[in-house]
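haha ok so turns out i had the wrong file open the whole time. this is the CORRECT one, sorry everyone. sequence first:
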Amino acid sequence: MQYALPMQTHAPGHTARRLAPFGTTIFAQMSALAAQHHAVNLSQGFPDDPGPAAAHEAAARAMQAGHNQYAPLPGTPQLRRAIADWSASRSRISPDPDTGITVTAGATEALAAATLGLVNPGDEVVLFEPFYDSYRACVAFAGATPRFVQLRPDESGTRFTFDEPELRAAFTDKTRLVLINTPHNPTGAVLSKAELQTIADLCLQHDAIALADEVYETLTYDESQPHISIATLPGMADRTVTVSSIGKSFSLTGWKIGWAIAPSHLTAAVRAAHQFLTFAVATPLQHAAAELLTKHHAIAESIRAHDHAMRDLLVPALTDLGFKCFNPAGTYFVMADHTEVSAGLALSPETTPDAALCRHLTEHARVAAIPPSAFYSTPSDGGRFIRFAFCKQQPTIEQAIANLRETLG
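then structure:
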């Protein structure tokens, strides 16, 4: 999948066929382009601060205490207990720390391990698009067939949702897994209980497993649209793998400490793959993560409040510049329809409109965003949108707004 952005890094003809369609991830491409043009990077979703001091201190203590060798395959007992308590308080899921939790190298590895451990070649996996780009690659690794269901703006034009008949048509007697992301990257939608119940009913009807990516579980901004875990719905506890991490909740994306929560029979499948992907992840960071989850809930709340404030700073500014924004109820991303903005610009016709605008903004406005066409099975379906990340410090957001105003008026 090409976007006429930075050069692809693999050698044509040598990449395995199952990976050849994906090229270099769009996040790496846009971050490289941002660095090249000294642009404010609102493309890749990582904070531009060092993370909580309490996290640094906890990690240093763990290293000094000698926790520097391999951790157990499922994760340190301290972290698994902390995850169990965190999940019970946040999501009303109460896993067994020994048989129901696997610590992974971030949520991305948890998703890969779950897919590889549970899906066979020839199975079908239902994916909602736009999707986080690793989802489709995971399905390709497993030799399965993706079945796409598109999230589109609803009748009010304020949030993205799915069409129920389209979703029902995607489930067949070959459906093994449905991958759910809520709060949703990149649209910012938080799936309602009714929407989740529709998905749950189809899982029960077709004996399918739900793989729930809930990494943005703490980042919701509207009390009327709370985060709900599909595992808490009737009949779903025994057929759901719930994935999360400390990366988003504690602004520590580089630590790559994630987890998969599941009943023991599904956990066995996750661990069967995990042991040959990474086996275990950084031991001192696991000890530090356990301390964060146990003692520092206030840090997660302060991060949520900060991101909420940055959303409320960026979205009105984008709207004033002519973008039609879908105000996110969750995550730290905003999807914006750029049709009106692009109409007044001379953009390259040789690529999708979103990629052309993202290149233009990076080069001329010195603000990088993500072209969401990378998150669609048919890239042109995402051509009218671009995605901005607002998980940044206030001066960064203010500089981005100033740059955009200078260039776009």
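The chain has a mean pLDDT of 95.
again sry for the mixup
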